[in-house]
């Protein structure tokens, strides 16, 4: 039995240290929920005071992970939102990654995309009818890339190693403008394609939350699995009194054929 959670919280304090502690509390609660579901103790030991504390180590590149069991997690936060992805399986450790970004107005997003995005992704932005749509599309793509970097234990300096994300597997054709409808569902499917064969066992889940008083956030979650193919979305659990309206934008799978691309200039 595979357990896949996405824990979310809208916090009142933007202090990074506070949000970091809040994220660890979310992780602890998700782990205990998994333990209750499967009668497994995953990643937590009893401290001297009797409180459960996470037993967490870091890889050489700084990526945190649970020690000595088959579960993985990833943490991200932006402005007042904290997000934690959690994935466990009985026989092996599958990895997960997540990234959340507040859609802060950014005048230079097209310049950033010109340096770091692949041609089909830049075309995706160019097809946007307004600056607002372009900014939204930029953040959706950026969170997907960050989720990939985090599942692989890479940094922003490795952006050239990210797969290319495309709409309907296109390699240069016109993208329907309907995909940019505000608050609407995309008219079609997204795909990704990379050079690594291991990437074909990945699946991405893209979300967005928009609130007039609290702004908009983009959120991407990535998971590994045994074989390429569709899988269940994460079970979303809120750990705050305020629950922002979360909308599922797309489930993104590997393209059946490679998407032709050229490394962006850096």
Features:
266 residues, alpha+beta, Ribosomal Protein L22, Chain A, 6-stranded mixed sheet, 4-stranded mixed sheet, 4 helices, 14 strands, globular, disordered C terminus
- What does the overall shape look like? globular
Q: From the 3D coordinates, which CATH architecture would you assign?
A: Alpha-Beta Complex
State the domain count. 1
The count of β-strands is: 14
Q: What is the mean pLDDT?
A: 81
Tell me the name of the CATH homologous superfamily.
Answer: 4'-phosphopantetheinyl transferase domain
What is the terminal separation in angstroms? 43 Å
Reading off the top of the CATH hierarchy, the class is best stated as Alpha Beta
Q: What are the secondary-structure elements, in order, as H or E?
A: EHEEEEEEEHHHEEEEEE
Question: Would you mind describing this structure in some detail?
Answer:
Helix 3 (119-126) runs antiparallel to helix 4 (131-152). By secondary structure, this protein is α+β, with helices and mostly antiparallel strands. The model is unreliable at 40-50, 169-187 and 261-266 (pLDDT under 50). The protein has helices spanning 16-38, 109-116, 119-126, 131-152; strands spanning 3-10, 44-46, 52-54, 56-58, 64-66, 71-78, 81-88, 96-102, 164-167, 190-193, 202-211, 215-224, 235-238, 246-254. The strands form four sheets. A six-stranded mixed β-sheet has the order 8-12-11-14-10-9. A four-stranded mixed β-sheet has the order 6-7-1-13, covered by helices on one side. The protein is globular and about 50 Å long. The protein has one domain: 4'-phosphopantetheinyl transferase domain (Ribosomal Protein L22, Chain A, Alpha-Beta Complex), CATH 3.90.470.20. The chain has four helices and 14 strands.
